[in-house]
Every structure is written in structure tokens, then in C-alpha cells.
Amino acid sequence: MARERGRVARFYFNFRSPYSWIAYRDLMDRYPDVAQAVEWRPWWEPDADGERLMNEHGETFPYTPMSREKHLYILQDVRRLARARGLDIRWPVDQDPVWEVPHLAYFPALDAGLGPRYIERVYRARWQEGRDICDPAVIAGVAEELGLPADRLAGAAGDRELREGRGLAALLALGRDGAFGVPFFRHGYDRFWGVDRLPAFVESVRAGPRGGAPAPPPPGPDLAAARSADHGHAGGCG
């Protein structure tokens, strides 16, 4: 379904974003068929080393600092969204987060056939238990719960081969797919950003190809320029 005529469906997930967590829960709870069909791609804010690697390949990470007003709104909005879904939320406190710690650890979990279980457990640790998932000890605990090698997952951020291989490839893929924020979904040429766009993405995936060749992307401003601005709204984070 998701790969017919090259119309690959992808979900770019992120452990930092509460909206990505809400979209994950909606995808799993309301649209399990689509959750099974899509490709799951990690999206994270690289540290200085990750940005250097991207720059060496002619890419930059789209980032705009969030205003205080937007941050306060998100706190209110996410509580509202979580309450409507019957989800309890505990806000974590991030202190000098290194997002490679939880996101790069996804790859060895995926290789072991436990990618979905890892995603579920890390989301739960962060948004329902209020734990610091950028602490390698927390990731080691998750690995132990899943029967995975704790040292391997906890040390993923320090694995040069992983960073410069699959990690860098994942970061470079963001630009190719135009994934400027999260949660982000793509089906063929169609892009969807934010929790409120998930139903449209689901409809697109379930409908499959509509006949003929896929339409080319619409004309518009330069993609790099478009990604440099903060187009934030309630359904997604940059």
C-alpha cells in the first residue's frame, strides 16, 4: 500500500517534540494499519558535531529559536490535546540535551527487530514518566527492559561509525524530503506537517495512487529559504 508506484509513505518522528508524541499516539491508536505501512524515520536536532558533518555535505539544519510566548502556548495546547486523548503527561526538564543519545540508539534497536518497541518505550519514558532520555543511563535502562545490549544503545551517540554513517544519512534525508519540523509525514510528493494533518496523510496512504504518474511538486520559493523561517503552528514544532 505505502510503496505502490514509488509513493513511499514516511513518518518523521522526534522524541523531543510533544506534538510528535501526540501524533505517534494517534497513529498507533487510531490508524494501526497505516502505522504498519509507513517507513519510520528519526528527526532530531544535531549537536555541533552533527551540524559540522551536515555542513561538509552542503546541508544545514533548519532551526529557529522558539519564542517565550510560543513555548507557553505549547505547554497549554499539549495539555489540552493529551487530556482529549485520555493521556497523562509529565513534562520533562531538559538540561543540555544531546538528542543523538536517544535517536541514534534507535538504529541498533531497529536492527534487532525492536524498533517499534524502542520508540514506544522512549516516548513513554519522556512524556509519561518525565525522564531525561538524553541521559545514557536512561537509554541503558530502556535497552535492558527490551533485552537489548545496554552499552551498545547507551553509547550510540559516541559511535563514530554510526554517527557518520546512518546518523548522517538520516540528517541529510531531512533536506531531500523537506522535513523542516515535526511531526512530519510524506507520501510521494505530498507533505503533511503537524498533528492536525495526520488524518489527511492517512487518507492519502489508504487511497494509494490515484492513477497516472504522480504530480510534480508545485512551484514555490527556494526550499532552503522556505525552511529557514519559523512557520510554527499549534500542530507541529520546528
TrEMBL record:
Reactions the enzyme catalyzes: 2-hydroxychromene-2-carboxylate = (3E)-4-(2-hydroxyphenyl)-2-oxobut-3-enoate
EC number(s) given by UniProt: 5.99.1.4
Keywords: Isomerase
Residues the record marks as active site: 17
Gene3D superfamilies reported in the protein's UniProt record: Glutaredoxin
Domain of life, per lineage: Bacteria
MF GO annotations: 2-hydroxychromene-2-carboxylate isomerase activity; oxidoreductase activity
Region of interest called Disordered, as start-end residue ranges on this chain: 209-238
Compositional bias segments (type: Basic and acidic residues): 228-238
Every DSBA-like thioredoxin domain range: 11-203
Family according to the record: Belongs to the GST superfamily. NadH family.
Full protein name: 2-hydroxychromene-2-carboxylate isomerase
Organism of derivation: Streptomyces sparsogenes DSM 40356
